[in-house]
Amino acid sequence: MDQHASARADRPEIVVEDLMIPSDTAGISLHLRNKRPAALKTFSAERTILMMHGATYSSESLFDTPLGGASFMDYLAGHGYDVFALDVRGYGQSTRPPEMDAPPEQSEPLVRTGAGVRDLASAVAHILKQRRIARLNLVAMSWGGSVAGAYTAGNNDKVVKLALVAPLWLLQGPAPIDAGGRLGGYRNVPVLDFRTRWLSAAPEAARSSLIPAGGFERWANISLATDPLGSAQTPAIMRAVNGPILDIREYWAAGKRLYDAGDIRVPVLLVHAEWDQDVPIASAQNFFLSLTHAPYRRWVEIGEGTHMVLLEKNRLQAFDAINQFLGEDYS
């Protein structure tokens, strides 16, 4: 039997809403996608999730690309959660800074981590008000782990639990995502060329089976569709802001903490995959050991996965680990 068949068969009807909410900046609106069971009428902090994307691709691209019949958002909603996914300014369907309409060399790197934290705060405030709850869970990946970690460190009272997939932390030298040289406001990402870098992290013998059949094309099409201006070009590109890259360069790759993980005082789950070259295992270990005030913490290491494990053959191991962590009660 297809390993995903039982999950599909038991999945309840899912409601999907796309919302545009105000940021703290005039003229900048933020895209929130919500998926939840149609039968869910009573909302609680413990069953509410906000998801946060990484440095390049939107939340829809990372969390709502359907593979094997379901996306990560579908999986969580199917397990009874009220799930929101945020695009910070410059990503996905959120407003792009006006500087992105000019050549990149005409502006400094856009949307630094501080702006991401502010946009996450705006999304949290909106959800808490709409659902009439005091806290929620955060699930974040890569640079989004920096954003969610920094937000939680300053707002523990608004977070139930924090689940991070390969969060950025201290690195031994430049990050693979940083091509070096002067950074303009944004970069043009040739999405269809990313397959080579994605697969290069895995041993050659494992590459052909790493991404589910047709999965790369589905993911790439969703990613490109978030930027109609870029996808209309030949070859197709997607514009991605460079503020996160500058922060990686000036903080994590320079051995400087952008925030203090010891200030996080909620339960934390760290999910990491063995072939991750963007966040090496030594970086993950340093982060885990820095969580000195979390009530409890857990590290799940997934074999045969890269930085993009949430879109790979072993993604259900990550999904299940996060679902178990969010659903347990050790209070």
TrEMBL record:
Lineage: superkingdom: Bacteria
Domain AB hydrolase-1: start-end pairs: 48-170
Database matches in Gene3D superfamilies: alpha/beta hydrolase
Designated name of the protein: Pimeloyl-ACP methyl ester carboxylesterase
Native species: Bradyrhizobium yuanmingense
